[in-house]
Amino acid sequence: MRGYVVFLRRPYAGRLLGGTLLGRLPNGMGMLAVVLHVRADDGGYPLAGTLAAILGLSTAAGQPVLGRAMDRFGQPRVLLPAACASAAGFALLAAVGAAPLPVAVAAVSAAGFATPPLEAGLRALWPDVLDGPEQVDAAYALDAAAQELLFTVGPLLVVAAAVVNTETALLITGALGIAGTLVVALSGPSRRWRGEPRASDWAGPLRSPGLRVLLLSLACAGIALGVYSVAVVAYAENLGRDLASGLLLACMAGGALAGGIAYGARPWAGAAHRRLPWLLAALAAGYIPLVLAPGLPVMSVLAFVSGVFLAPVLACSFTLVDRLAPAGTVTEAFAWIVAAIGAGSSVGSFVSGVGQDAAGVPGAFAGAGVGGVLALALCLLGARTLSPAAGPAVTADAAARL
């Protein structure tokens, strides 16, 4: 744990981590707040689910776009307007409800697409704020572990605000995004940070073969996460215990928190690209037994175990992004990671629903194991490209000479 204490004592480290977590609380609140508001406005579950899905997909689409803008224009000039635009989207939905539908769709689309890329921005700042790669690796691990709190605390805040009314829940969601963004964007490191010169091509970080492999692998891991979030609801309904879904989500989040803290508490020998396949194999192995859907006590243990290697996979992936992203594209590269996992999670939600219809609760959970195995397989197939030496970054000067 000494590594965490050392890095959190660095100037601005605690402020940046805390502000980013505060500003990202809407990520754990938005979908639930949208569903509750649409239902309170007499909208059906299909409409509520569709608008929530639009919010999630819009968020995934907006992160790389805003990340590229941050690489070009700096952080505050992108983060602050984005946070305000996202909050305005939530406020518009609070005002109009589900009708007229085109306005509601526009509201959730704006709220999602303009979500400030605080997660990507923080990871771009760590190398400038911290002292050496060991502290950066510890920061990545704690960041990956702490984000599990967003999906535990966020829904609780929504439910508490909705006691007043669902409009309040939406307004608080947007306000927290602005508050956290202000904490980060007004800090010295954020105001001083500038992206490196980059080649003027449309692909940006996607021209890195290793990064493309990493994105596809993490998208499959995202499928497993999306499957799990829907499958636990089916499990709880089948068990006749509504609270079981929340318990199992909390157990997985607890496993991820514990795994991330343990992973970052010590330095690791060897290259990150050699460590990632082992971590993905362990992650997949944790998802596969869920298909058994045993009684709640055993299922709670399996849920905890399934989360243990999630944060280490993410932390190791963040280290690889630093080394694989071409010059001047690091924020956009991290934003693509967020988008890939989010898009995969949306696919996983659909896959789990199909599996539930076809084979009940075991079918709902089956996609989690499949997603984990696919993530591992893609990583192994593209292992050569994940080595930084195998795919050197193209600098702007080099690209100009081509």
Automatic annotation (TrEMBL):
<feature type="transmembrane region" description="Helical">
    <location>
        <begin position="333"/>
        <end position="351"/>
    </location>
</feature>
<feature type="transmembrane region" description="Helical">
    <location>
        <begin position="169"/>
        <end position="189"/>
    </location>
</feature>
<keyword id="KW-0472">Membrane</keyword>
<dbReference type="GO" id="GO:0022857">
    <property type="term" value="F:transmembrane transporter activity"/>
</dbReference>
<feature type="transmembrane region" description="Helical">
    <location>
        <begin position="210"/>
        <end position="231"/>
    </location>
</feature>
<dbReference type="InterPro" id="IPR011701">
    <property type="entry name" value="MFS"/>
</dbReference>
<feature type="transmembrane region" description="Helical">
    <location>
        <begin position="21"/>
        <end position="38"/>
    </location>
</feature>
<dbReference type="Pfam" id="PF07690">
    <property type="entry name" value="MFS_1"/>
</dbReference>
<feature type="transmembrane region" description="Helical">
    <location>
        <begin position="243"/>
        <end position="264"/>
    </location>
</feature>
<feature type="transmembrane region" description="Helical">
    <location>
        <begin position="78"/>
        <end position="98"/>
    </location>
</feature>
<feature type="transmembrane region" description="Helical">
    <location>
        <begin position="44"/>
        <end position="66"/>
    </location>
</feature>
<dbReference type="InterPro" id="IPR036259">
    <property type="entry name" value="MFS_trans_sf"/>
</dbReference>
<keyword id="KW-1133">Transmembrane helix</keyword>
<keyword id="KW-0812">Transmembrane</keyword>
<feature type="transmembrane region" description="Helical">
    <location>
        <begin position="276"/>
        <end position="295"/>
    </location>
</feature>
<protein>
    <submittedName>
        <fullName>MFS family permease</fullName>
    </submittedName>
</protein>
<feature type="transmembrane region" description="Helical">
    <location>
        <begin position="301"/>
        <end position="321"/>
    </location>
</feature>
<feature type="transmembrane region" description="Helical">
    <location>
        <begin position="363"/>
        <end position="383"/>
    </location>
</feature>
